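Q: Here's a chain of 330 amino acids. Please give me its 3D structure as tokens.
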Amino acid sequence: MSTLPQPDFLQNALTPNPFEDVDESTWLDVIHKMDEVYSKLIADEIELEKKNTELEQAYRELQNTHEVLKRTQQQLLHSEKMASLGQLVAGVAHELNNPISFVLGNAHALNRYCGRLQTYLAAVHAHAPDEHVQALRQSLRIDHLLTDLPSLIDGTLEGAQRTSDIVHGLKRFSAVDTEEMAFLSLVDVIDRALHWVQKGVVSSCQVHWQAAADVQVWGNAAHLQQVLMNLLQNAFDATRTAVAGQIWLSLTADDKHAQIVVRDNGHGILAEHVVRVFDPFFTTKPVGQGTGLGLSISYGIVEQHKGQLTVRNHPEGGAEFCLRLPLRQA
């Protein structure tokens, strides 16, 4: 005969309770330990929130410090540019003197021409006799004056425009730089840097620079121009004591990088100084002739452009700086 299945409630009632023999003190111990674990979890959560708050505060302080450092770097870069600008003043003053003197001379000539024309036209409008008008026309050289006026005005405008271009260039050079990045031509950057440095030096140093194929990189044109100006200014300074100063400037490129090399035939760099040339405030120039910030700032700018700036003594003599930058790529 088959056995009838037991109902669920009856089966549960018949199943022995595994905790039936556990005494009350054991239960109290279990509950106490659970309370301890829960309390520890609460304490750990509070500590974790505290650490998280401290971490957020530290991050904000680090971010603020980073912003201060960026502003300080901009101020140092601007100060270094102002020091370079001071060296350009003599050369620029001479260059400004030429067009300004030309404009001033033309203005005096125009003033004289104006007086002669006023005298002649006064006689014409007074209906003076023809003989008197013709005599005035010849004595005041009105025909020559009228022929000379167009070239005189053109020359004055040209001198004024030249002066305006120089002043505009100085304003752009001395302006505080922005962080704007764009695709730029390294040939243009080198040309502008060489142009400004040569204005500020009195030297018979020969510069060997012939622009080849243009190379474009992603960066800040003003910052890279400042780097090149620092390197070129140092090269000119190094060749002051050379019998026949020479500077070699080259631009090459491979598949991934552009390379600018600035080399001089000066006395080179002492071995113990090679490892320190990029240190802030390190300089071998006499007091008052160098801030010791140019190469340090240049090194930082090149790093920001994902590039490298290195220095060595060339085997044939003189110092050689090598600037490598990533090529323009999407």
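Q: Can you summarize the key feature?
A: The chain has two domains: 24-176, 178-326.
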